[in-house]
Structures are given as C-alpha cells and as structure tokens.
Amino acid sequence: MREVYFIKQNKEKWLGIEQVIQGKIKKNPDDLSSLYINLINDLSFAQTYYPKSNTTVYLNHLSSQIFQKIYKTKRVEENRILYFFKTEVPLLVYQYRRYLLYAFLFFTLFTLIGVLSAIYDKEFATIILGEGYVNETIENIKKGNAVGVYQKGSTWGSTIGIIFNNIGVGAKLYLYGIFAGIGTLYALLSNSVMLGSFQYFFYDYGALKDSARGIWLHGVFEIFSMVVEAMCGLILGASILFPRTFSRFNSFKMGFKDSFKIFLSTIPFTVCAGIIEGYVTRHALKMPLILNLVIIFGSLAIIGFYYFVYPSIVHKKINNQINDAVL
C-alpha cells in the first residue's frame, strides 16, 4: 500500500486519538485499550513498509501518548506519591529517553570544553571559579586538605544553603528551556565548563585524588540531577519547536506537564546531595577510602538505575499488563 493512501485511510482515526489524548473526547478504559491495539497495528505496518517515514515517527509518538492515557485510567490503589516515583516518572523517562541521551552528550561535550580550556589557559580556572576561591583552595591543597572549602560554616546551615542553591540551579536548567531549549543549553554549558575546569584545576595541583574523594560524595547525585534537569529543559524546548500535529500551545502544555513531573523527581536526589555535602563531605579525607567508594558508587548505582534501567523495566511490565488485559 502506498504511504499516501495509508495516511488518507487512517487520518481521521489518528486525529480522533489526538482528541482523546488532549482530553477533548472521553473514552472508557476498554475503548482506550482498543484504540491502543489498533494504533500499534498501524505502527507495526508503518515500521515494516515506511521505516524512515515521518508517519512512523508520528505513530510512535501517538502510541506513547495513548499508552500513558490508558495507564492513567487504571485505578491507583497505592500511595499517590509512591505511584508517582515508582511508575509515573519512570514511564515518562522511558518515553523521553532520547532527551536524556542528548543531555548527557551535551554535558560531556561541555565538560570537555572546560577541561581543554583549563589546559590551554592557566588563568581560565581563576576566571571561572573566582580568584578568592582559587587562592583559598591552593592554600588548602598545600596544607594537605583539598576539601577544606567544604569544612566552613555549620553543618545544618551549609546544608540548607546548598540545597536551595542547587534547586535554583536545577530550576534554571529546566525553565530556561522555554527559550526553545537554547537557554537550557547555555545554563548547562556554564555549569559543565565550570565542572571541567574545576576538576582540571585539582589535577594541575596534584590533588585530583583527594578532591574526588570529597567532591563526588555529593557530586554524583548533584551532577546527575543537573543532567536530568537539562533533559527536562530540552523536552520543554522541543515541545515548542516541534509541535507535530498538535497546536503549538497544546504541544507546550503537554511538554510542560511531562517535563515538570520528571523535574520534580530530581528534588529528592538534590536534597540528598545537599545533606551529604553539608554533613559528610567535610570528613572526606578522614574517612576510610572504602567508605568513600561505597557512597560514591552506591549513589551512582541508585540514580543510574532509576533513570537508565528502571524505566525500561516499568514500561515492559505495564505493556505486558495492558496486552494481557486486551487479549
């Protein structure tokens, strides 16, 4: 069948599904399941005969949206907050998983730019980090205390300040996405370049190992969350730039709703990072190395599993449940 005829034959049905997704047409769970199965059949046909077509991309997006709609109609018997983190967010992360990949690629590129800039310009770290901070840290390194800057102030006071600062940084990474995603990339560039130059600064002064023992205790949760927040900003920007068949406003509403939920999921990790930085990082060099490694790699395993592995597990589980229900 020619693609033009395939589109003409199914156009009204697909537009009707868009209306359901937007909430303009109400359907019961059984009808939604029938629509989903029908749409999956169309998607399978398009993937077979028009694999590189925009029609296939469109149907893939539409099936993801109706999938979300179906599952949200199911009665949620568990605690709403638990459901949010256990099911809703992972499904959204799976749906927008390519944006997480984009965010990590940009983060890696921008961090390398920071490292290379610090290598070829010895004053770059001073410009980025500030002369006062650099001089103080150099003195601490000479004293054998590379993480001395984290030992200033009270534990609870530092923790509260750090948490609010990190949430503010994350909010900028996310909300700047409203400028077609360019604002998010600029914010990510600024923070990533700072990280790259920061790490090379310690390497240049022979204190990379000691700094890593301290910085990455809280840095795993903080930096990973920052990348996920950038992912949310890119989703927001893409909803404006690429509305597909939706109106730009409706596309923005859907993009904002989905990305905001993912953004909220980073808050617990940001709070944990602040607590670790305020209470634990100051003791980094006095702790047994094995304890540092357990916290660092344990944190990486937790947040990496939640955003990279768990979404696929949840998607597969829910998909099997829906297929069993409609067969």
Automatic annotation (TrEMBL):
Q: Is Transmembrane among the key words of this record?
A: yes
Q: State the UniProt keywords alphabetically.
A: Membrane, Transmembrane, Transmembrane helix
Q: List the InterPro entries.
A: SpoIIM-like
Q: Name one Pfam family in it.
A: SpoIIM
What residue intervals traverse the membrane? 99-120, 173-203, 215-242, 262-280, 289-309
**Sorted alphabetically, which PANTHER family does this protein's record hold?**
SLR1478 PROTEIN
Its recorded name reads Putative membrane protein SpoIIM required for sporulation
**Organism encoding this protein:** Chryseobacterium defluvii
